[in-house]
Amino acid sequence: MSTTLIEVRPARAADASAVAATHDEAWRSAYQGIIPGAELEKLINRRGPNWWDSAIRKGSRVSVLCFGDKVAGYANYGRNRARSLHFEGEIYELYLRPEFQGLGFGRRLFAAARRDLGQSGLKSMVIWALSDNEPATEFYRALGGRMVARSSERFGQKSLDKVAFAWSN
Fold it and tell me: Residues 95-128: pLDDT tens digits?
């Protein structure tokens, strides 16, 4: 019998390529058919290994979920960026490689990011999801998030609806 270690830990600069690959796979899976193709490619290509290396080295809060020696997912989080929403923290991104979805790893990554925010004094938090991304909106509802705001975001010529889910301690 073999045991595979599953851990959530702060990202290191050495993880930049793996986080970039995870971002690429997760975004293609989540947004194919939602975000127009050319716009999706631009968004993915902006976040290559150098971008992640710089973000990690500059101290951005990025946690990775590792399955053995493979980065299976990541979360990027910090202070809430939407001043109109009165929540302290925000999870900016939470993504898993497609083959690791539906196994409870997203819950573990979410819980770790929420705990880290709370330990930093950010007791309430928000996360945004595109309305058309049903797996994400269902995931956040299942985690107890309540919908607190709606907005839209432009992707080239297309405007997409997004919703904010919030949690308070």
Answer: 999 999 999 999 999 999 999 999 999 999 999 9
Q: What is the pTM of this model?
A: 0.94
d(CA 154, CA 160): 6
Contact 29, 96 (CB under 8 A): no
What pLDDT does residue 1 have? Answer: 66
State the pLDDT at residue 3: 78
- Those residues whose C-beta lies under 8 Å from the C-beta of residue 148, and which sit 6 or more positions away, are 85, 87, 126, 164, 165, 166
- Picking from 53, 104, 87, 82, the residue whose alpha carbon sits closest to that of residue 150 is 82
Give the angle 166-87-167 at the CA atoms, nearest 5°: 25
Query: CA-CA distance, 140 to 137, in Å (whole number)?
Result: 5
CB atoms within 10 A of CB 48: 15
What is the CATH code of the structural domain delimited by 4-166?
Answer: 3.40.630.30
Q: Which residues pair with 167 in a beta bridge?
A: 125
Question: What residues contact 47, with CB distance under 8 A and at least 6 apart?
Answer: 20, 23, 24
- What letter does residue 112 receive in the DSSP assignment? H
* CA nearest neighbour of 44 among 54, 57, 30: 30
Taking the domains of the chain in order of start, what are their residue ranges? Answer: 4-166
- Alpha-carbon 93 to chain mean position: 2
Are 90 and 125 within 8 A, CB to CB?
A: yes
